Amino acid sequence: MKKLPANQILQNKKELKNRAMNKILLIIQREYLTRVKKKSFIVMTFLGPILMVGLVFAQFWIKMIPEEKQNVLVVDESQLFLNKLENTSNQTFSYSKNTLSFEQRNFYKTDDNVILYIPANIIDSQKIQIFYKKQPGLGMQDYINTIVGKKLEEMKLLASGIQINQLESIKTKLNLTTTKIEKSGDFETKDNEVSMALGFIAGILIYIFIFLYGAQVMRGVIEEKTSRIVEVIISSVKPFELMMGKIIGIAAVGLTQFLLWIILSAVGTSMVGNFFMKDKQSVDQMEQTFKTNIPQKAAFKEMPTDEKAEIMDSFLNQVNLPIMLFSFLFYFLGGYLLYGALFAAVGSAVDNEADTQQFMLPLTIPLILSFTLAQNVMTNPESSLAFWLSVFPLTSPVIMMVRIPFGVPYFDLILSMIMLVLGFIGATWVSAKIYRTGILMYGKKSSYKELWKWLFYKG
How far apart are CA 210 and CA 368, in angstroms? Predict the structure, then answer.
C-alpha cells in the first residue's frame, strides 16, 4: 500500500474535522429550527411574559383597591384611650360606655364590624382583644396593635416623667457597613443584603434553566430512540456528533426563549407601571393604601435627589457588573452543557421516561444540594464549604454565582471555570461512551452494571 505524504494526511484530517463540524452544525440547526417552530415553544415564549405582566398588573391593581371600611367599637375599661385613637380612611373608632358582655350581646344589632376590648389592667397585662363579625385583614390588626402600643408607650413615659422628644433624641440607629481591605491597600465596601439578593436570583435562574432544558435533551433522545428515527440518523453521523448537536441546539433554543422572556417581561411590566403611574389620582390612592395600615418612612421617590443618587451609586458599586454578567453567561451555559450531556446519556440508556428515575437521582442530587446549601454559602461566602462547592463542577454553576456578588478571589473564579470546563469534557466523554451504545439498545432495561460495560466497550 502506498504511504500518503504527511501534508496529505494533515489535509485529510482537516477535511474529516470540517465534515464532523458541518454535521454538528446541521444537527444544531435542525434541533433549533424544529423546536422554535413548534406551537408549544411559541405559546410558552409569549405565555411566560404574559403571566409575569399579569402578576405585576394584579399586584398594582390589588394595592389600589381600598380595604373595606371597618367601624371599630372601643370598649375601654382602663379609660386611658378614650378619644385617643385616630380615625383613618379605613377605620372609624367609636367609644362605648357599656360593658363588654353588653356590646357582645348587641353586636349584630349595630353597624359595628369590630369590637376592640381594652382591659382595665392594660398597663400590666399589655393585652388587648378584638371581636369581629368577619375576619379583619392583617393590615387592620397590625394598625390597631401598633397604634395602641404606641399610645401605651407614651402613657408609660409620661408617668415616668420622661418626655417623648427626649426619648426620640436618645434612640440611635446604627448604620453598619462592611469594608474589605485589599492587599493593594484599596477599600471595597459591600452591602450584604444586595449581594445576597443578586446571588440568589442568579443561582435560581441557572438552577431552573438546567432542570428545564436538560430534561428536554433527555426527552428528545428518548423520543428519537423509541421512534427509531435515530437509526436513520446514525447511518450518516456519529453518535457523538448527534449528541453534541442536540445538546447545543437545545441550549440555543433555551437561550433564545430566556432572552425573549426577559425582553418581553421588561417591556410589559414597564407598560403596566406607566399605565398606573400616569394617573396622579391612582398614585395618591396607592400611596394612601400603603400608609393606611402601618406608619412607614418616606418612600424612595420622596427623598432628595442627592440621596437618591447616593443610594443608586452605592447599589451599582456593590458588585463588579462586567464580572457578574460574564460569569452568569459562562455558568449559565457551562452548567447546562455539563448536565445536558449527562441527561443525554440517561435518555439513551432507557426506552421511556418512567425508567429514568434510577439514573436521574444521582445527577440531580448535586444540583438540589447546591440550591439547598446556597443559604449557608450566602451567610459565609468565604468558608471552606463555599470554596469546594464553588469548585466542584456539578455544584459550581449555582454556588459560584451565589458567591460572586460578595467578591470572589480571581484564583477561585478561574479555578472554578477550569474545573467546570474539565468537568464538561469528562462528562461528555462518559456520556458519549454510553450514548453510542445505548442509543441503539431496545427492549432491555439498563442497569449501572450495563452502563459500566458500555464505558469500556470497543467497536
Answer: 11
